[in-house]
Amino acid sequence: MQHFDGGWGWWEQDESDPWMTAYVLEGLHRAAAAGFGDGRLVERGVQWAKREFEGRRANSWTRAERLAMLAALARHGSDVFARERFVQENLSQATATELALALRVATALGDSAEQQLLIGRLVAKAKDSSTYAWWPEDGYGNETTATALDALSEAAPQHPILPRVVRRLLAERRGGGWVSTRDTSAVLLALARYLPTTGEVSASGSIRILVNGRPYRTVPMAGSDRDLRLDVPFADLQTGDNVVRLERDGRGRFYCAMALKRTVASDVLGRVINDSGLEVTRTYRTLGAVRMEDGTLRLRPSDRPVERVEAGEILQVELTIRSRESREFVLIEDPFPSGFRPVERGDWDRYDDWTWWYSNMTAYDDRMAVFSRHLPAGLSTITYTLRAENPGVAHALPASVVDMYRPEVTGSSASSRLQVTR
Questions:
Q1: pTM for the full model?
Q2: Which is deepest, 34, 122, 274, 358, by most CB within 10 Å?
Q3: Contact (Cβ atoms closer than 8 angstroms) between residue 222 and residue 203
Q4: What is the dihedral of CA 88, 90, 94, 100, to 10 degrees?
């Protein structure tokens, strides 16, 4: 995934990205502290960052991106380089995220005076109560609060606000994660830094789970680092309220989160209609040989979409995405009809130029996934090909488009039905 220039991007074929490069360098620093590391990767990444600063290209980055990179450089031995540029940053109007990242830089540089100043300013921006503490989000999901927890846990591991921040983050958890993969990774990194300072990782005892007063399972707290799934038969649920009770014995704190999901069966799924300003439609067209003016034969899609094909025929799938505004980090997923297989796998030769508007296309066993680092406003189109293999009625779940780090911004097509004949 490391690019030729030494930086990292979101995919092999996109441009090196300052946030992602800083993120990887931070991860490599933590890996080295745990006894794992690759100095060659680090050196190439550090050199890319230095070139960006020296060439003034870093001036076009956001302040948060520059601070994240300076912290990474300071951690990897370029403290003089990082200090010279850190003092040039104007933090008078800094957001909570920027203050947290600046605190990370000061900690990496060993600047205790700047640390204390930044700790005070960061804590002053918190929304604090007797139970919870958090920061207004200027990032994705819970990313700002997680970044603040990480910076404070490193700089002031005994600060009294930290337990309330952790309680807030755990209260925000949705089942096994948070809002998105991005803020989930930020929260996990922060908790991994915080928990060893509290002794909570050495908890003992057990948790007893009761549903409507009936014991279902007892789970040991020590070593229970796996997801717990508890299946309750529908017959055991009662009309009205159903109570899940957790009883703890032993030593240590216990955190939990629960989520209830319901699936409604339906033969036909309609498209999602909302005001997100993000829509996707899907059509299938057969590909046939057409003689061109120069006498050559080329595959061309049929004029009209089809719902009936023959086994062995190749279809062109066309996805049309309509966005009310330009967006970042968009994922488009298109489930294949049952009994169809992709003709192309989305493979890319790193020596070829990437010319598509999207950043990556990958064919999985059951769907095509397309990632766009930048989705322009208006209409955008994606095409790929499938082969019909098994005769019968084939169903395809709806195609979907979603803002990866704001998953409430989403849209989908309707489901599709294709008749495949011999």
A1: 0.83
A2: 122
A3: yes
A4: 20
